[in-house]
Amino acid sequence: MTQRLSIDPITRLEGHGKIEIFLDDKGNVANSYFQIPELRGFERFVVGRPIEEMPLITNRICGVCPEAHHMAASKAADMVYKVDPPRTAKLLRELLYMAFYCTDHTTHFYALGGPDFVMGPDAPVAERNILGVIHKVGLEIGGKVIQMRKYGHTVVEMIGGRKVHPCTSIPGGITKGITEEQRKEIEEMGRWAIEFAQFSLKLFNDIVLGNKQYVDLILGDVYTHRTYSMGMVDENNKTNFYDGKVRVVDPNGKEFVKYAPKDYAEHIAEHVEPWTYLKFPYLKKVGWKGFVDGEDSGVYMATPLSRLNAADGLATPLAQEQYEKFYATLGGKPVHQRLATHWARLIELLYAAERWVELASDSEITSPNVHAKPTETPTEGVGIVEAPRGTLTHHYWTDERGLVTKANLIVGTTNNYAPIQMSTHKAAANLIKEGKVTEGLLNMVEMAFRAYDPCFGCATHSMPGQMPLEITIRDASGNPVEVLKQFC
Amino acid sequence: MNQGKTPFSGSTKVCGTMKPDITEAGAGLVWSEDVVMKTLLIGLGNPILGDDGVGWRVVENVKRHLDPDSQVVVECLSLGGISLMEHLIGYQRAILVDAFISEENIGSVFVYKLDEIPNYSAFHVSSAHDMTLQSAIELGRWLGAVLPTDTTVVGIATRRIIDFSEELSAPVAEAIPKATEIVLGLLTEFALK
Question: CATH classification of B22-192 is 3.40.50.1450, yes or no?
């Protein structure tokens, strides 16, 4: 009997996604398609606008990580004008970015990814959420999550001018510096963030690593793919979210390439499938071989896990300790088990918090020298940052007046489209046997893509935002024989 | 700054009571002192995504009609869920103006109490990144935050929200005066309470 399963995670927050699963005659998974209708026309929308508008306008592509778009567009605009911002401007941009990272990674762990582990993947959906986490771990932690977010928003506002959608980065630097009083406050909040990150790692250690069932789930084959790993590194090959070169290691952990942002197009190409609007980036020099693992496949991941794999370590001491523990626990580098991404995200949280304090303690951070006036004729520029959910590339071409003539953006999640497709397929294939849909399929498939923290859309948030995740099982005639919904 | 009790010390607490002790939670939070007696008016949406920007346009129009000494705080936001809830903290009443995906005629204006809108996903995440506003508000209350007891949603029906544009469709643009009038009426009602 031929069956068709449809998992349809529609959301107004992030565009629309849908998973179609086709079963073979024996009722096992033959094919699956994770379809994403891309929001239309952004790269056309920006044509004709001044390049200096890009840091403001692109941060409205996505309500989840506007700070990442603000930074990538600002760096691209620097290059368009061939201007190198003063050191203090770079420090301030990175400081804002670290505060954003702490906010974003905290939200993901406690509200989105964490409930699968803290409550358990089989827990009823009504409990597998942040309220369940608070109930289980203690009410105090909920307050600390909100506190962490508040501190992050406060720093973003101090440096970026607004709590969300920052507006102060411009070609050549930043429009305003910070006072010594602000610096002290930022540093104090950063020290709190370090404690919070350590607490979060302890929580992960106690609840997840202390539970053999969870460790087995993480290390199991269902969520494992041996692909290339991508991440930005500094001159010492240590992870850096704001600046550096993009390094890619092969499935064995060996450096495959390290390239400057301006050279991205030499290394990344995009594969097109007829069943989805979104393209699949891959490593050009390896080639597209389909949705398959291995050294011969150009598929790569760009996530917290891949960033750890692609680096030789982390540049802050506490995070480095955790980095070493991570690989010692999981059997060495690189780690390919996708659920380990949740742990990697918390290690990055600690790194971001430590870096936050480092930057706030820099003797030049309060310097008024925060902008270098652009004097060159604008042409073309590429800006890359590590967004929480993957390497983010902005590329603009302008005319001599600085008006955009062409734009190309590869957003964080897009890098992971192929591995997400592979992970959801593998999860479905393992959970659907001989036509029997395993209980918990919805969440187990969701877990496959939730590890990537995917984001498919824009900053549109019209009410009443919802994500009706459904599995529809269809018979040979296409008639639905069973519909499963996550609502309760 | 955090006024909580002994942060980050001791072992992880597992399996608390089902009913949280709000007093305990509130003690660890920072926002109770931020309570103001104002009404918050929020335009929601993305101003570069066609009709999704109508919420901003309505509240900007309302602002032009407000007395300079008005106790109404007006904001334009592209947020949802937890982030939106955080903006509501400290206010007694809130009005949210936003585009609605609806099968009704484009440009129709609806008024709902937030409680009347189905909370489709209960407390599960409503997307890969967030939860519904209703769930986020309940979360905030669990944690001791002061949140509006009266939240009204003014929606403008549309179906055109995935094309990047700064322009509203004609029927949605034509709905702005009516939506403005409704919001001003709600603000007058609030002021009389």
Answer: yes
